[in-house]
Amino acid sequence: MSTLTADDLRARVGELLAAHPPASTDRLEFLRARFDAGLAWVHYPAGLGGLDAPRELQNVVEAELAKAGAPDNNPRRIGIGLGMAAPTILRFGTDEQKQRYLRPLWTGEEVWCQLFSEPGAGSDLAALGTRAVRDGDEWVVNGQKVWTSVAHIARFAILVTRTDPDVPKHQGMTYFICDMTDPGVEVRPLRQLTGEAEFNEVFLSGVRIPDANRLGAVGEGWKVAQTTLMNERVAIGGNAIPREGGLIGMVAKTWRDRPELRTPELHDRLLKLWVQAEAARLAGTRLRQQLAVGAPGPEGSAMKLAFANLQQALTGLEIELSGEDGLRYDDWTLRRPEKVDMLGRGPGYRYLRAKGNSIEGGTSEVLRNIISERVLGLPSEPRVDKDVAWKDLPR
């Protein structure tokens, strides 16, 4: 680990700003220069956008750049790449893969999506049936994925497949990087309760993936996928927000601005949710401190579960607190957005979109099992399919 200090980081940011003034430098040029200076994610290795520095020093970099008016990399648009693909590539990728993918991923030049869930393999991801069959130095992939965010704008995807149906389901999986522009990749919009098609279905028909695009060993896709999933849950539930930030801030503002809507019962619910939001915020801070000294573990599942419950409770309260205005929906137009905008739409949209929070990134039911078994150490549920070959499982 590097011995760099906060003052060292400030000096490096100063050098970057002097060589590439934000006011006169092209946005993409600035982001590339920031990556090359090791100021993208300081805890990553030198040469890969980092400086081998403690993770918490990233806050120093962000504060200095924000003060200078420097552009960011639009993290909400490329969240899957930043929060899921990048840490997986860093851990399991070859040197060539790291050099090829991490820089354009961080700058936002290449958007990533996640091809995991299937119509018959969502909560039980290890039951997936998308097949990859080896053909020389390539793999031929056929199958269907679903609930794929930003697939309509993605250049690359992290993909989990079934490569050996003759072994138990967790053992016969292999993980790939899939080029979304390759022949045989078809993306179809999946219209949601909100009216938008933020998610997609992805059909893979004879897609040929070079073996050089494999992450991890053949048959160890489940192990690689666990790294992705642990980081995904932290990315969803462990974001840094200020006190009364996010949805609790919007609901509290409505309470303050509309005294005629107040009732004792709503006041009681708001206070309880405010306390829960603050507890979740502080727990998220502790989780990020733990990440500074290690990789994410199952604790991220608890944060993601708390996030989903809190979002749904807050949006329900906001609808009630908004009175008649809460029943008016702003726009049913079918759009295919590049990111989720929970705060830029009306209460009705937030209420409907929050329903997906308890599904995406692992259902709340599955997360409760993970917490009980891997955090609390409780006995596992009986699993009759643990030693059964995937091809012999009932479907």
Residue-averaged pLDDT, rounded?
90
Class by alpha and beta content: alpha+beta
Q: Shape, please?
A: globular
Portion in helices = 40-55%
Calculate Rg over CA atoms: 22 Å
Number of strands: 8
Note the gap between the termini. Answer: 49 Å
Biggest sheet architecture: 4 strands, mixed
With helices defined by DSSP (H or I, 4 residues minimum), what is the helix count? 11
Q: Proportion of β residues?
A: 5-15%
Strand order of the largest sheet: 1-4-5-8
Order of helices and strands: HHHHHEEEEEEEEHHHHHH
List segments where confidence is low: pLDDT < 50 over at least 5 consecutive residues: none
Q: Would you mind describing this structure in some detail?
A:
- This protein has 395 residues and is an alpha+beta fold.
- It has eleven helices and eight strands.
- It has a four-stranded mixed beta sheet with strand order 1-4-5-8. It has a four-stranded antiparallel beta sheet with strand order 2-3-7-6, with no helix packed on it.
- The radius of gyration is 22 Å and the shape is globular.
TL;DR of this structure?
This protein is 40% helix and 13% strand.
Q: What's the helix and strand layout?
A:
Layout: H1 6-19, H2 27-36, H3 58-67, H4 79-92, H5 95-107, E1 112-115, E2 131-135, E3 138-145, E4 156-162, E5 173-179, E6 185-190, E7 199-210, E8 214-215, H6 221-237, H7 247-257, H8 264-291, H9 299-321, H10 347-353, H11 364-375
Parallel strand pairs: 1-4
Antiparallel strand pairs: 2-3, 3-7, 4-5, 5-8, 6-7
Helix pairs in contact: 1-3, 2-5, 4-5, 4-6, 6-9, 7-9, 8-9, 9-10, 9-11
